[in-house]
Amino acid sequence: xxxxxxxxxxxxxxxxxxxxxxxxxxxxxxxxxxxxxxxxxxxxxxxxxxxxxxxxxxxxxxxxxxxxxxxxxxxxxxxxxxxxxxxxxxxxxxxxxxxxxxxxxxxxxxxxxxxxxxxxxxxxxxxxxxxxxxxxxxxxxxxxxxxxxxxxxxxxxxxxxxxxxxxxxxxxxxxxxxxxxxxxxxxxxxxxxxxxxxxxxxxxxxxxxxxxxxxxxxxxxxxxxxxxxxxxxxxxxxxxxxxxxxxxxxxxxxxxxxxxxxxxxxxxxxxxxxxxxxxxxxxxxxxxxxxxxxxxxxxxxxxxxxxxxxxxxxxxxxxxxxxxxxxxxxxxxxxxxxxxxxxxxxxxxxxxxxxxxxxxxxxxxxxxxxxxxxxxxxxxxxxxxxxxxxxxxxxxxxxxxxxxxxxxxxxxxxxxxxxxxxxxxxxxxxxxxxxxxxxxxxxxxxxxxxxxxxxxxxxxxxxxxxxxxxxxxxxxxxxxxxxxxxxxxxxxxxxxxxxxxxxxxxxxxxxxxxxxxxxxxxxxxxxxxxxxxxxxxxxxxxxxxxxxxxxxxxxxxxxxxxxxxxxxxxxxxxxxxxxxxxxxxxxxxxxxxxxxxxxxxxxxxxxxxxxxxxxxxxxxxxxxxxxxxxxxxxxxxxxxxxxxxxxxxxxxxxxxxxxxxxxxxxxxxxxxxxxxxxxxxxxxxxxxxxxxxxxxxxxxxxxxxxxxxxxxxxxxxxxxxxxxxxxxxxxxxxxxxxxxxxxxxxxxxxxxxxxxxxxxxxxxxxxxxxxxxxxxxxxxxxxxxxxxxxxxxxxxxxxxxxxxxxxxxxxxxxxxxxxxxxxxxxxxxxxxxxxxxxxxxxxxxxxxxxxxxxxxxxxxxxxxxxxxxxxxxxxxxxxxxxxxxxxxxxxxxxxxxxxxxxxxxxxxxxxxxx
Length: 914
Hints:
Blueprint: H1 2-20, E1 28-31, H2 33-36, E2 42-47, E3 53-57, E4 60-64, E5 69-72, E6 80-86, E7 89-94, E8 97-103, E9 109-113, E10 128-134, E11 137-142, E12 145-150, E13 153-159, E14 162-169, E15 172-177, E16 181-185, E17 191-193, E18 205-211, E19 214-219, E20 223-226, E21 231-233, H3 237-246, E22 248-255, E23 258-263, E24 268-272, E25 277-281, E26 292-298, E27 301-306, E28 309-314, E29 319-323, E30 332-338, E31 341-346, E32 349-354, E33 357-365, E34 368-374, E35 377-382, E36 385-390, E37 393-398, E38 403-408, E39 416-420, E40 424-427, E41 433-436, E42 445-448, E43 453-458, E44 462-468, E45 475-481, E46 483-484, E47 487-488, E48 493-497, E49 500-505, E50 508-513, E51 518-521, E52 531-537, E53 540-545, E54 551-554, E55 560-563, E56 579-581, E57 586-591, E58 594-599, H4 600-608, E59 616-621, E60 634-635, E61 642-648, E62 656-662, E63 667-670, E64 675-679, E65 684-694, E66 697-709, H5 717-803, H6 811-825, H7 828-841, H8 845-852, H9 858-868, H10 873-880, H11 884-898, H12 906-913
Parallel strand pairs: 60-66
Antiparallel strand pairs: 1-28, 2-3, 3-4, 4-5, 6-7, 7-8, 8-9, 10-11, 11-12, 12-13, 14-15, 15-16, 16-17, 18-19, 19-20, 20-21, 22-23, 23-24, 24-25, 26-27, 27-28, 29-58, 30-31, 31-32, 32-33, 34-35, 35-36, 36-37, 38-39, 39-40, 40-41, 42-43, 43-44, 44-45, 46-47, 48-49, 49-50, 50-51, 52-53, 53-54, ...
């Protein structure tokens, strides 16, 4: 019982020492079950060539690509105990199961079990705890057998009771046998014991690693080394004393000068075998859990599988941290290295940091703004006054008011100025503190223009330019600068850069022109308009961004280094950022929960080689399916309402992963959780570019991924071809219709022309006929009139002859003459000629007349024809060889035959009706 109590006291003492001892730590990123959404235990970790992490988790295979976590469970839901990345395959081991995962052409993880390849062997409740590659084969180790996978065949190499480790050493496969030590597996699959290893007998070998051709062998409480001939306890006694309590579990040789040990009880032990320096990473200084189950390395980073979570430790980071998780220290405002000790000014007090231990100075409680070394003395500007720090004592210098700053007066030995909450005080040569009564407002910042003239910044009301009198007992000159180039100077900052007064006001830099006694634009600092100067020392300047809190280190000549706020884990004290120079390569940054050490040489090397990580496209899917990554996807328009891209960015030092989409639409943004989605893209070809974004801007290498959103069905190629055909058909139809119209129009024109031509011909013919008719009428009228005149003359002659016939001696001759005259008057030939000419003019007259009045005689027809010609009875009489009276009688008889009304004119009737 006493021994147990003594052991517990030792453990308690060691625990107290560990918790009180603090060291600068590299950045540690912890991932909890809430981050990766799987079980807490992670038995093994491995990384592929691109830096993607794979972890053997209780719920399946975990994957992390720098952007998002994925879990791939086995169908059996069994615990995965081991994982090993080899080429494109991720081999895993589980309970009575082993195989490999591989991404298909669509980026989806597919599992292939290798157990069905085993022949003539039955598992004996085995779990696969380790996987290694050796001579183009993959070996799987359980506690009961070793399995070899090669050429798509699996064979049981050897069975038995095996220990915790299998590795390749001296180009041979080395195995641990439970409590028997280490053995080589020869080509005949027989075991050969490692030489001179009696010291390992009876111990359980937890892990084995190779360093400089030697073997490092870990048991639970000790570390051994095999130098090629014999095994011996490792030479560092202090290291082995740590292992007696911490319990070794795994070893990782990160380099010849850096070995990482994973323990069961105390997290990670980092060991330098050259300097024998030991560092611990555990729950007290960054890790979530003290039980280390697996370790892997990639590009200077250590990935740790924990009993509760996963951790990433960046051993090569140019920034290391002292973080006070207790909250006691608070926000650090300033640091000073004095007499081999670090002093810290924070919002909770002033501390001394010595031998990796933090201790508050007695009486130093309260907010401290500034630490300053003047003439070998260390001063603190405190909320309650100004103090000198003597070793670990807090000695008051001036306690009338809190102070912001203390600085020496140029060219005046042993005279210093204190900027206080109520004005300015002077520490004289004899140490007396004199309050300057001419100033009764708070001064937060002071910059000397020369030994007597200085600029003072009010916390709220702007800038003042002041001048001391000769004995520094008062102010000779005070000028309040309300505005700078018509802009109010609220919260302006004043500095001295290369003996030039510089002022930052409303994101613009100005300088004071002594000759003109005026402020003018400081064009040389235009590139830093959005940055505030926080440190200047030996020609090197530190600026901090006003919005993003990025840090810039520059000499204004050739060098400009940028540290993203992400690199400092967004821990800077906003609006009170501070950088403290230690030497040419080491600087310290005050943080809101501690401080950070910045190795500027490492920053240079890292930024010169920062273009390494390349984004990885893991998958593309729309509303319906996932697409192959081997060719540019063609996404149907109806499925393109949401198109999602899954992307990883492993082992990147970029501040963010950004994208730019170029095509019909141009979209840019930042990738969140490894996924970016686009909605309702217009159809067309696109190029999606992924790239890292650093404070320097966009950098390569970038990943370019082309894809195409197909047009909707009504704009598809087949439909466009159909539209072309329809358009051509429409053109042909229009052409054909136009041809028909043109033909029809031509026919109409021809018909019209023909009609017009025919009409013209008809008119001409009609005119000719009319002319002929007119001519014939004239001829007929003339002939008729001639005949009438002739007959009239003959009738007159006949009348004269009849009147004087008694005078003629030869009556017979007279009678014969009269008969000839009668015959001449009634000449049928003349009638025939008249009838012919009349018929030509009035073709159907006689036929129509006879048709209507068939009882008409030839004499009636003659009379009708003469009446038709509108001849008078007097003109008709000689033609018919009768008297006018006889014509009238004949007309009367004709009316009777035609049964005409007495009122109707016979001439009009014949002309109108016939």
